């Protein structure tokens, strides 16, 4: 059995070389496109994260302001109660002290 062998000609080699160069250029273009898309996505995500962080900071500040105003209100209310009913306040404080002492006493 005889096999037919064909030798690549100069034209075929040149065409293959051109196709390889075209593939290299296409791959480089795809790489640039993917890099650009990745950078855009990172920028968009970074912007979203920064917006969410700012919103969380604002909510945290609002919560702290609310907590501070509540502490001031309750402190004023407790002070007013002590001034209006000093003996009752003293008895409650003594009772809380005794209860705390019983709970923390070592046996």
Overview of this protein structure:
It is a single chain. With 107 residues, the protein is an all-alpha fold. The protein has one domain. The protein contains 2 helices and no strands. The N and C termini lie far apart (105 Å).
Write a short abstract of this structure:
The protein is mainly alpha-helical.
Give a topology summary.
Layout: H1 10-84, H2 86-104
Helix pairs in contact: 1-2
Number of strands: 0
Largest sheet at a glance? Answer: none
- Average pLDDT confidence is 89
What number of domains? 1
- Sheet/helix structural class: mainly alpha
Unreliable spans are: none
Shape: rod-shaped
> Could you spell the SSE succession in H and E letters?
HH
Helix amount: over 70%
The number of helical runs is: 2
Ends distance? 105 Å
Q: How much of the residues is beta strand, in percent?
A: under 5%
Estimated radius of gyration: 40 Å
Coiled coil: 13-40
Protein name: Membrane-anchored ribosome-binding protein, inhibits growth in stationary phase, ElaB/YqjD/DUF883 family
InterPro entries: DUF883_C
Pfam family, one: DUF883_C
Keywords:
107 residues, single chain, coiled coil, transmembrane, mainly alpha, 2 helices, 88% helix, transmembrane helix
């Amino acid at each position: 059995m005889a096999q037919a062998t064909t030798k690549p000609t100069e034209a075929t080699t040149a065409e293959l070389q051109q196709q390889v160069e075209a593939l290299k250029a296409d791959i480089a273009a795809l790489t640039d496109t993917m890099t650009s898309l990745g950078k855009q996505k990172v920028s968009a995500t970074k912007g979203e994260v920064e917006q969410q962080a700012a919103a969380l900071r604002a909510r945290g500040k609002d919560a702290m302001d609310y907590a501070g105003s509540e502490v001031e209100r309750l402190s004023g209310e407790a002070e007013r109660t002590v001034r209006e009913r000093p003996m009752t306040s003293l008895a409650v404080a003594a009772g809380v002290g005794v209860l705390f002492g019983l709970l923390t006493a070592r046996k």
